[in-house]
Request: fold
Amino acid sequence: MAETTSPQDAEQATNLPWWKSKPAKRFRRNPLALVGAFTVLAFLVIAFFAPQLSDPSRSCLRDLGVTAGTIDDINNPTKGVFWQAIFVPPESCYTMPRASFSPIPESPSADYRFGTTSSGYDIGYGLVWGARTAFNIGLIVVGLSLAMGLLIGGLAGFIGGWVDEVLMRFTDIVIAFPSLVLAIVIVTILGQTLTNVIVAIALVAWPNYARVIRAEVMKVKNLDYVESARALGSRGLRVFTKHMLPNTIAPLIVVASLDMGSVVLTASALSFLGLGPPMGYADWGQMVNFARNWILGPPGDPLAYWYTSVYPGMAILVFVLGWNLLGDAFRDAFDPRDS
Amino acid sequence: MFAYIVRRILFIPVVLIGVTLLIVGLMQLLSPAQRAAAFVSSDAQLKNLDLIIDQYGLDEPFHVQYGNWMQEALTGNLGFSSTSKEPVLTTIRKRLPASAELALVSLIPVIGLGIALGTAAALNRDRFIDQLTRVVAIVGWSLPNFVLGIWLLVIFYGGLGEVLREFAGGAFRLEPGRVSTEISIEIANGTFPIRTNFLLIDSLLAGRPDVFWDALRHLILPVITLAATSSAIIMRVMRSSLLETLSQDYVRTARAKGLTENVVNYKHARRNALIPVITLAGFTLIFLLNGVVITETVFNYPGLGRWFASAAVSLDYPAVMGFTVLTAMIVVVGNLLVDVLYAAVDPRIRYD
Reply:
C-alpha cells in the first residue's frame, strides 16, 4: 500500500498551493502520468458530450421533446435541450439505435462509421454512450464502496479492540473470495439489472477502502497532534473527521483511481456473461458479447467481422489502461521514499 | 507450526458454515418456489414444487431451513441443476477435472514466464527489455480476459485459421472446445477410456499421443487468456522485489568476494527476492477462479466455470450455490497451503 506524505511534505503543502507541492511536481515530471491523465480526460470529454458526438435515436429525441424542426438545438449551447441532453438525458438515450434487426453484423459505412453489431446495433453510438455508462458505474461504485469503507474501516480503526477484530476478519473473508464469482452470485440473487450490478460490485469492492482507512486511522491515533486535539476538548466524530480523515486522502486517491479501472473491468465482464443491463443498453461488455458469434467470417474472408470485437474491446482496454496509469502515477507521486 | 496447521484445519468448517449461512440467507430474498428447485433431484420432481416446499419446509423460519439445507448437503445432495439436467454434485464431479486441468496448465506460464521476465527486467533495469516488460505488464493488467480471449480467437481461429488448418493436416489448428469432434465422439461411445477425466493424463494412460496433442493444442489459447493477468502481476512484483534485493548489503558483499555475476544474481539475490512472489499465490488462486468462469465461457470449454456462468444467466440457483460452496472450500484450503508454503520457504516466518 502507498505511504502518506512525510511530515515535511505535509508542512510544505500547507504553505504552498497544491499544484506546487512535491507530489504535484513528481506527477508532472512522469510522462506515463500525463498519458494516463490525458486518456481519462479524453474519455471524460466523450462521455460528457455524448449527445453531441452521436446521432441520438428517435426515441431518445422524442423523450427530449425534440422534433424534426428543432433537431439542431441539441448542438446549440444556447438552447436548454443541449444541457438537458448532457445532464439529465432520458433513459432511452442509453439504448443504442438499431440499423436493422439482422443477426449479421454490417461493416463500417457512411451511416454507421464503426459498423453495427449482430442484431443491428450501432457500434459508434455504443462506444460514445458506453463511455458514459463506464463513468456512471465507476463513479457510483467507487462512491458506494468509499462510504462502506469509511464506515467499516473507520469504526475498526477508531474503536479498536474486538470491534476491530470482528470487522477486519469479515473484511479478510470478502477479500479472499474471488470477486467476480461473488458479484455473479449477488446479481443472480438480486436480479439482473444495472442497479443490481452496481450494488453487487460495490459489495465486493469496499474492503480495500476499509483497510486503507483503518491503517491510516491506526497510524495517527496516538500521535501528539491527535492527543492534543483531544486534550483541547475535541471528541469522537470531530477528531475523526478533522484530524484523521485528511490523512487518508492521498492513499484513497490511489485506491480509487486504480479501482475505476477494475470496477469497469468487472462490470463489463458481467455484461459479457449476460448478467448486466438489458439488451441494447450502450455498454462495452455487452458489445463484446455480441461479437462472440461472429468470430469467424465467411470462407475466404475470415476477418470480415473484426470491427465487432476490436472497437468495444479497445474501448475497455484504453479506458482501464488510462485509470491504471493514473493510479500508478498517483502512487509514485505520493510515495515519499522516492524523491 | 504443527499446532497452527491443526488450528487452521479445525477452522475450515467454521468458515464454510459462515459462507453457507450467508448464501442461504441471501437465498431468503427469493420466493419459496424459486428455492424449492434446490431440493429437486430429478426432472419429474420439478412438476410438483408445492410438495417439495411442504416437504422441506421452505416457508419455515430461516434457522430451520438452514438446518434442512445443511442436512441434505452433508448427505451429498446439493440439489438438481436445471442447466446440466443432473444433480449438482454429479456435475461438479464430472467437470472439476476439466477446469483443474486448465488452471494447472496455466500455472506453468504464470510462474515460469512471470518470474523469468521479472528477473530479466530487473537485471536490465531501464534498458529496452525492462521498458518492454513494463509496457506488457501494464497492458496485460488492463486488458480484460474476455476481450483477450475473443481477440485470440479472431486472430488464430479466424484470421490464421485457414493457414493453420492446411498446415500439417490440421495438427496445428487452434479452435474452441476441449477436444476435436472426432475425439469427442470416441469419448462418447467409449472407444477412448476416461479414467481421471484429466485428458492429458488419460491419453498417456491409454497410450494415445494423438489425443494428448489434441487436448494440449485446445488448451493453448485458453491458457494464454487465463494466465495473462496473473503473469503480469507476478512479473511486476518479481521485478521490484529483485531490484530491492540487489541493492542490499549482503549482495554487495557477495560481489566484493569476487563471485561471478550469475552466482550473485541467481543464487544470492533471486532466492530471497522470490519470497514476496510467493505471497502472491493467494491472489493467483483468486485470479484463476475468476478467470476460469470467463475463459471457459469464451472458449466453450466444458468445465465448471462455463456451467456456473450459464447457470447464473438461467437462474439455476442450486448450481450457483453449489459452485459457490466449492469455491469457498478451494479458497480456504488454498490459503492454508499458501501460508504453510510461506513458512517453509522463509524460516523467519513463525506462526503461533
About this structure: Chain B touches chain A through 48 residues (CB under 8 Å). Residues 2-77 of chain B form one domain.
